[in-house]
Amino acid sequence: MRFDGVRKEYAGSVAVDDLSLAVREHELLVLVGPSGCGKSTTLRMANRLVEPTAGRIVLGDEDVTDVDPVALRRRIGYVIQNVGLFPHRTVAQNVATVPGLLGWDRRRTRERVTELLALVGLDPDRYARRWPHELSGGERQRVGVARALATDPPVLLMDEPFGAVDPVGRARLQQEFARLQRELGTTVMMVTHDIDEAVRMADRVAVLSRGAHLEQLAPPLEVVARPASAAVADLVGRGRTARLLALGRLEPSDLDDAGAATRPGGTRDAPATAGAGTGRTLRLGAELGDVVTALTDAAGASGGGAVPVLDASGHVVGAASAQTVVRALHRLTSGGPAAG
Ligand SMILES: Nc1ncnc2c1ncn2[C@@H]1O[C@H](COP(=O)(O)OP(=O)(O)OP(=O)(O)O)[C@@H](O)[C@H]1O
């Protein structure tokens, strides 16, 4: 799906100024930005709930403005906060909405409903006949996702899909949904104002400012490590180090004796480390947050200490210390493109 010079004006005020953005097939792209910057308007133009004032939105090789809006919405899944389940229809009937509109027979519909409920983690035997008011907020959101996926749409639009769910349930839903999306390969465009949700779930993050101005479009680690503008820095500023620790990975050049590996003829002995005594080790590629945890466990109250680091075949390639973490953070925040 591609936005080409898209603009939306409301009675003289500009919600989306001039947005060009390509959503890659099978990716989970998250639009993030402050309230009122035009995220929802952008999303809603994709399924023609809002008509653009100018520009083109292309799905496959069709301009969406050439497609009948009702037909379009059957091809594009849509999930919103509080889902808007039909209150007088059971869970199964809600999920079967679009198959019903498309005239699927009963048996095919029933099988698909059962399959989808299981997919989103709701036991069909327990949930199919319940009413929306008999569900928790998180369960309702799962039904909303199942309903949107019923006909396996190539594109799914999600507007603050987990906004109404409590923080614990929310983290679990984010994780489960990201896994499901990777499994199904659905192309997803999702809106949130929560930068943590964005960096946790996205393949790429699009940071928007007022007028849906595209500040940065990059993988989460790059957005956090190297904000492209003051607006992005502002958004990721608070808690940035914690986010870097969650996203960054341990690399050979971060290790304490990294120099030894590159010395001609240099052999590498297992370094004497405090961590060695505890039996604790780390692997190359470990999350930096796990490196910090391992160091904390190995250090004792006095601080200091290091933990041996192994490569994929289990050989010691160096040691991780507090310096390692500092080096990794420097590596991530300076220089070439961040892996991620
Ligand atoms: N139907 C409408 N009529 C007039 N103005 C609108 C309408 N819908 C949105 N706007 C305006 O367009 C701008 C962008 O709104 P939009 O809902 O897209 O922002 P958003 O980034 O999704 O915000 P939020 O995170 O608060 O939901 C805002 O200034 C809003 O007031």
What's the short story on this structure?
The chain has about 350 residues and is an alpha/beta fold.
Structure description:
- This protein is α/β, with parallel strands linked by helices and 340 residues long.
- It has two domains: 2-246, P-loop containing nucleotide triphosphate hydrolases (Rossmann fold, 3-Layer(aba) Sandwich); 252-333, no CATH class.
- 40% of the residues lie in helices and 21% in strands.
- It has helices at residues 39-46, 69-75, 91-95, 97-101, 106-119, 124-127, 137-149, 167-184, 195-201, 220-225, 230-237, 240-247, 258-262, 274-278, 288-299, 322-333; strands at residues 2-10, 13-22, 28-32, 54-59, 62-63, 76-80, 155-159, 187-192, 204-209, 213-218, 282-283, 307-310, 316-320.
- The strands form three sheets. A six-stranded mixed beta sheet has the order 6-7-8-3-9-10, with helices on both faces. Strands 2-1-4-5 form a four-stranded antiparallel beta sheet, with helices on one face. A three-stranded mixed beta sheet has the order 11-12-13.
- The longest helix is centred in the middle third of the chain and has 18 residues, at 167-184.
- It is globular, with a radius of gyration of 24 Å.
- 38% of the residues are buried.
- Residues 258-276 have low confidence and may be disordered.
- It binds adenosine-5'-triphosphate.
- Adenosine-5'-triphosphate binds at residues 10, 15, 33, 35-41, 193.
